[in-house]
Write a structure and sequence with these properties.
12 helices; single chain; 6-stranded mixed beta sheet; binds P-hydroxybenzoic acid; alpha+beta; FAD/NAD(P)-binding domain; binds adenosine-5-diphosphoribose
Length: 396
């Protein structure tokens, strides 16, 4: 970490994957930037999140010069399984759309981005407090904050709000200028990370009458599993032994027989939500990633959407500084939102089809529709193609 200047071209708020990737791409384009992050680097790296990268995200990481370890250690998956009524149905991504995804934890990606940023000597201030974007409607915005007990300000040309769902940037746009869309699901995902070999070579998304389950992985020796739990469920109700027993019940017996159990190295419950803010720009402030939108994790789209926002923003800022053109920045919000809504649709759809909704105890009709839609899609090459095309990511 180097000392921060009093002025930069792009002030980035948030050192999650969106902020760090944007910073890296801008620096490579010769655009000066500073990142302000609320938490410590260690805290940012302690958060366990999803781990499926679309090919377009990998290409962007290559451009950013941070893909070497990802190529060495990331797991290339040519397909994944959907399990319905105990039967596995493979979505063959390679055969259906000629592409693969890469399984590589977001935490590792964040680590690679932090290391590249430090190696390039780019300025990042961790543990900043009371961050306030100011004068965002004018041409000389600035950001005030407290760092190491001192109140400071950095002037800039643009502010990139990459500060996640709970950040300050979205909140600093006048409420009447924003429209938000939100859907909260009546369940959450209980995730468990353990140093045991994955139960299967590919991911398995399980629809089960006791609730959804997902078998994922991080490496040949590290697994990530999830269980659908009711909204508001308490972690204390899920000691490891209860988690493993419940997971086994939701898996087909042949898969359950291959399950390796081990102590959790991380266990947490995440609520499921769909959320979009429009527009993603106000004056000189641009929102990117979770600051502007949230998807339920079922389609593995959160990180990939953050990456496509960053790709558009990098392009807009690049055009501004290289050619003096504001066209890319003016189109930013609309270009992002077109892609975001399609990913919102896919994530909502996968969530709706694979989870058990509390009302379904009575609403047997909805459940039958869910079954019929899955049966139809999985038996149709077009249906499987639709799933595959969305899973590997729609074009930018
Ligand atoms: N000031 C500075 N930084 C802040 C503030 C603030 N007021 N509020 C939040 N932050 C930081 C958070 O501590 C976090 O490190 O902004 C960062 C936002 O990072 P993420 O939440 O990871 O969001 P994003 O970079 O958009 O990444 C999107 O991460 O959250 C997952 O599912 C999501 O996979 C997706 C990806
Ligand atoms: C994960 O590995 O954490 C993961 C994978 C796929 C998803 C969600 C989470 O859809």
């Amino acid at each position: 970490m180097s000392d921060s200047p009093v002025r930069t071209q792009v002030l980035i708020v948030g050192a999650g994957p969106a902020g760090l990737l944007l910073g890296q791409l801008l620096a490579r384009a010769g655009i000066d930037n500073v990142i302000l992050e609320l938490r410590s680097a260690a805290h940012v790296l302690s958060r366990i999140r999803a781990g499926v990268l679309e090919p377009g995200t990998v290409a962007l990481l290559e451009e950013a010069g941070v893909a070497a370890r990802l190529h060495r250690e990331g797991l290339r998956h040519g397909g994944f399984e959907i399990c319905v009524d105990g039967a596995l149905h493979r979505i063959d991504l390679q055969a259906l759309v000629g592409q693969q995804v890469t399984v590589y934890g977001q935490t590792e990606l964040t680590r690679d981005l932090m290391e590249a940023r430090a190696a390039a000597g780019l300025s990042t201030l961790y543990e900043v407090d009371d961050v306030r974007p100011l004068e965002i409607e004018g041409t000389e915005p600035r950001v005030a904050f407290v760092h190491a007990g001192q109140r400071r300000e950095i002037r800039c040309d643009f502010i990139a709000g990459c500060d996640g769902f709970h950040g300050v940037c979205r909140a600093s746009i006048p409420a009447e200028r924003l429209r938000t869309y939100e859907k909260v699901y009546p369940f959450g995902w209980l995730g468990l990370l353990a140093d045991v070999p994955p139960v299967a070579p590919e991911l398995i998304y399980v629809r089960h009458e006791r609730g959804f389950a997902l078998c994922s992985q991080r490496s040949p020796t590290r697994s990530r599993y999830y269980l659908q739990v009711p909204a508001g469920a308490a972690l204390e109700a899920w000691p490891d032994s209860v988690f493993w027993a419940e997971l086994r019940r939701r898996l087909p017996s042949a898969v359950a027989a291959a399950l390796h159990e081990g102590p959790a190295i991380e266990k947490s419950i995440a609520p499921l939500r769909s959320f979009v803010t429009e527009p993603m720009r106000h004056g000189r402030l641009f929102l990117a990633g979770d600051a502007a939108h949230i998807v339920p994790p079922t389609g593995a789209k959160g990180l990939n959407l953050a990456a496509s926002d960053v790709a558009y923003l990098r392009q807009g800022l690049g055009d501004f500084y290289r050619r003096g053109s504001s066209a890319g920045l003016d189109a930013y919000s609309q270009r992002c939102l077109q892609r975001i809504w399609k990913a919102e649709r896919f994530s909502w759809w996968m969530t709706s089809l694979l989870h058990r909704f509390p009302s379904q105890g009575d609403a047997a009709f909805d459940q039958r529709l869910q079954e019929a839609e899955l049966a139809y899609l999985l038996s149709s090459a077009h249906g499987r193609g639709m799933i595959a095309e969305n899973y590997v990511g729609l074009p930018l």
